[in-house]
Design goal:
transmembrane, RLP23-like, elongated, single chain, about 575 residues
């Protein structure tokens, strides 16, 4: 498994409408518990560990339809939903799964999520019982073993969430009635061909497919046409290879496509231009190559998140991307793009304004909605955003071969919180009106060839907490502003700037821990002046020692000379270094 990298999506949180019917305390006032179902629940309880006494209402003579976590049918009185998922502030259930659940013949909703069953292997009878469920959630436990084929799901629309467990083995075959699956954060392995290409002529109802954070490998197969109802696909953090299948272009309802952190190669298939509903595209941390297609800006107008981080893209930064008026996260860092930053960048209107009332990015399906989440590099740290993702606005074009000046139009992006143009070949000055970007918290221009003085308006960036202007050709005094003087001095190393947090003197020479690096090529260059001095010193020192070993009479004179001149020589060296 590869390391989790910046801007990776962790998992799609499934938040379905059914879950809002009941928090944990369900009450059914118009029906009475059926005796056989009450006895089954009591037997099930006997094998559970309940350290916080959550099931205290489950008593021998009680009405089970009024017990915590139980919902009965208002028509038949049968128990139809069992809500035993843990929530914040409640201690987790544990113990063993009792086959008494088999006596709940009308159960269609089972939630055992976020409990602690201590690496339990799920028994066969439990999987057989699940065939009657329309909602099956045992996520965030420690269940282990293989997942059997799930071909006998009898309900017309089924949600299955097995995420965050220790399941191993290959992917199971699915019933055509399954609407959403989340198998993420397990140790499932092997190819997905048998899973995806089974019964090619049988249309599937699946709308959400989350296989992220497993050990799956091989090529992503060309069998996507039968899955035409898909709204969200997540294949992140596996070991997939080969190309992105062109048949994905048949998924015209697709809103989220994430293949991050695999070993996918080739170009972005042109067939994806038919997926006009896409809101999120994350192909970061692969080996994709070729040009970034201009049609992304023309044919995918609803994009909010576009991440192509750490690939092998070449060519120019397409101006067509400026047409993406809903774009809030643009990450093209760590590629080989060679161009200037287009002046039309101010057309990214979602980055121009402040945050709206919606703080979530979510997609609606026939079973409800699911929320997007993503990892973003912010202030030098990788941060996970989910329920507040809609509030995040970032642009990262760092570590490319961009040239030219920073366009003045960038200062109109007043909603941006993070802007990173570092490690390229940009020249010229920082735009004078940089202070208009009032939402900026992180600003990185390090390792370019920028020059001139820092504009005084930068002091207007009251939210700025991470600034890096190091290793450029900036001159003059650092503008006075509370947030600038509170930053680390290494934010200004490798420049000719002075003033707090640096020394007041403009003649001080400041070196970072790795020396001055003006751009990426300098990391591999040798400073021959210092190397010559060091070699000369070593040659002279060891030559003198060798001669002294041969001539005893010279030793006393030499060391006396060193003792007399050492202090003055030290003063000279210290004075030179200070300058």
């Amino acid at each position: 498994m590869k390391i989790v990298s910046p801007v990776t999506v962790t998992f799609l949180m499934l938040v379905f409408l059914e879950s809002f019917k009941l928090s944990f305390c369900g009450r059914n006032h118009n029906v009475t518990c059926i005796q056989s179902e009450r006895q089954a629940l009591l037997r099930f309880k006997q094998h559970l560990k309940d350290p916080s006494n959550r099931l205290s209402s489950w008593t021998k003579n009680g009405d089970c339809c009024r017990w915590d976590g139980i919902i009965c049918s208002n028509v038949s009185g049968h128990l139809i939903e069992l809500h035993l998922g843990s929530s914040r502030g409640t201690r987790k259930l544990g113990g063993k799964l009792n086959p008494a659940l088999l006596d709940l013949n009308h159960l269609t909703y089972l939630d055992l999520s976020d409990n602690d069953f201590r690496q339990t292997e799920i028994p066969t009878w439990f999987w057989n019982m699940s065939s009657n469920l329309s909602y099956f959630n045992i996520s965030r436990n420690q269940f282990q073993g293989n997942i059997p084929d799930l071909l006998t799901m009898t309900q017309p629309s089924v949600l299955i969430d097995l995420s965050c467990n220790n399941f191993t083995g290959s992917l199971p075959l699915l019933s055509s009635n399954v609407t959403a699956i989340d198998f993420s954060f397990n140790s499932l392995s092997g190819s997905m061909s048998h899973f995806l290409c089974h019964k090619l002529n049988e249309p599937m109802k699946l709308e959400i497919l989350n296989l992220g954070h497993n050990l799956l490998s091989g090529k992503i197969p060309e069998c996507w046409k039968k899955w035409s109802r898909l709204v969200g696909i997540k294949l992140c953090d596996n070991n997939f290879s080969g190309k992105i299948p062109g048949s994905m272009g048949a998924l015209t309802l697709l809103q989220s496509l994430q293949v991050r952190n695999n070993s996918v190669v080739g170009e972005i298939p042109s067939s994806l231009r038919h997926c006009g509903e896409l809101v999120t595209v994350d192909f970061g941390y692969n080996q994709l190559s070729g040009d970034i297609p201009g049609w992304i800006g023309e044919r995918l107008p609803k994009l909010i998140i576009l991440s192509l981080h750490s690939n092998k893209f070449t060519g120019t930064l397409p101006e067509e991307l400026c047409a993406l008026s809903y774009l809030q996260i643009l990450d093209l860092a760590h590629n080989n793009l060679v161009s200037e930053i287009p002046s039309c960048i101010n057309n990214l209107s979602a980055m121009n304004s402040g945050n709206n009332s919606d703080d979530k990015i979510f997609y609606r399906t026939s079973k409800g909605s699911f929320f997007e989440d993503i990892l973003v590099v912010m202030k030098g740290r990788v941060v996970n955003y989910d329920t507040t993702l809609k509030l995040v606005k970032t642009m990262d074009l760092s570590d490319n071969n961009l040239s030219g000046e920073i366009p003045e139009e960038v200062t109109s992006l007043a909603g941006l919180q993070s802007l990173n143009f570092s490690h390229s070949h940009l020249v010229g000055r920082i735009p004078y009106n940089i202070g208009a970007m009032t939402s900026l918290e992180c600003f990185d221009l390090s390792a370019n060839n920028l020059s001139g003085e820092i504009p005084l308006t930068i002091s207007d960036l009251s939210f700025l907490s991470h600034l890096n202007l190091s290793y450029n050709k900036f001159t003059g005094k650092i503008p006075t502003g509370t947030q600038l003087q509170s930053l680390n001095a290494d934010s200004f190393y490798g420049t000719k700037l002075f003033g707090p947090p640096l020394s007041e003197s403009s003649t001080d020479v400041r070196f970072g821990t790795g020396g001055v690096l003006k751009n990426r090529e300098d990391q591999h260059q040798v400073d021959w002046f210092f190397l010559t001095v060091e070699l000369g010193f070593l040659s002279g020192f060891f030559g003198t020692v060798f001669l002294l070993m041969l001539c005893k009479s010279g030793r006393l004179v030499h060391f006396q000379y060193v003792d007399e001149t050492g202090h003055s020589l030290g003063r000279i060296i210290r004075k030179y270094i200070v300058k």
